Amino acid sequence: MSTVILLLVTGLGLGALYFLVASGLSLIYGLMGVLNFAHGSFLTVGAFAGWEVARRTGADSWFSFLVSILIGAAVGALFAAFTELVLIRRLYERHIEQVLITVGLSLATVALFEGIWGTDPVFIDGPAWFSQTTNLLGAQIPNDRFISIIAAALVLLGMVLFLKRTRYGMIIRAGVENRSMVTALGIDVRKAFTLVFTIGGAAAGLGGVLASHYFGYVSPLLGGSLLIFAFIVTVIGGLGSLTGAAVASVAVALLQQFANFYLFGTGDFVVVIALALVLLFRPSGLLGRKS
Q: Disulfide check for 249: which of 4, 18, 37, 69 has CB 3.0–4.6 Å away?
């Protein structure tokens, strides 16, 4: 029983990281139809920014951790906004060029990060509480998993409130339904586009800092490895569905954890099989709308 509890909670922690990356992907595609292959770079730059702040302010303190989260989210948001303004804005409705430019940006940023911080993983320290465990129904749960779960829940709540209770949130939801109608009403959807990229980048940057604590290191390849599963989550949940991304993040992470433990480390393979089944029998995703 304790093993099942451990797998459940650690799976939820991993799913929280997947959601922080996939939520931005889902929002960006839902409003703009942009498959952003450079999204992992927002995560990586946020992780490195958070690490740089932490090591300069005392990596083992809660103050340092909280500041690193804020800085990581801010840097991810700024990088995402810069990407949309300089690169993506000129390429709307040109999907091949979008893919090429975002893939190129992801490769270029990996090379840039390797040039600045090196190719080897940088192992990090956090508050002492992170390295401790909490007993939950007989299972010893690493404390940092709880932080990831709480952060993802707050981000989900914040995004839902933003989309449903604010003017720009209504514009974004209307743009998802009918972008041409929103434009015809005289609303400058370009600001909404930049805002969505910024929100997605902030979530990814936050996810990068938390991922560095979850895995115990930060490296130039961290964002790329998580981006693969974030794309899987986004497709399974339904492109453009924030709720679908949340449900799929939990489902994929739990499936991965249990398969790794009970099926001899085949978690990644089982997740790909699940993706294939969804594409075959429900191409719109679990909570996506049929075109």
A: 18
249 within some domain? no
Contacts of 53 (CB under 8 A, 6+ apart): 64, 67, 68, 71, 72
pLDDT of residue 209: 94
Q: Which residue ranges of the chain lie beneath pLDDT 50?
A: none
**Looking at residue 17, what is its pLDDT?**
93
Smallest Cα–Cα separation from 230: which of 210, 206, 204, 209?
A: 204
How confident is the model at residue 291, as a pLDDT?
A: 53
Question: Mind listing the pLDDT tens digit for each residue in 60-97?
Answer: 788 889 999 999 999 999 999 999 999 888 887 777 88
Q: What DSSP character marks residue 239?
A: T
Residues 6+ positions from 281 with CB-CB distance below 8 Å: none
Structure tokens at 209: 């800092």
C-beta of residue 208 within 8 angstroms of C-beta of residue 77? no
Q: In this structure, is residue 283 part of a structural domain?
A: no
Domain membership of residue 256 (yes or no) is: no
Tell me if 62 is assigned to some domain. yes
